[in-house]
Amino acid sequence: MKPHSLSARRIGLLMFSLCAFGLMTSASMPADSKFAVEPVVEKKLKELPPGPLFWRLENFPTLAQAQSAAGPTSLAAEVAGKVWLFTLGPKDGSTPGGTKVVEIGPLPPISASEYLLRVNRAGGAPGAKSAIHTHPGPEAFYVLAGKLGQRTPHGVTYAEAGTTMTGHGANTPMEVFSAGTTDLDELAIFVVDANQPFSSPASLD
Question: Where is the signal peptide (predicted)?
Answer without folding.
Answer: 1-31
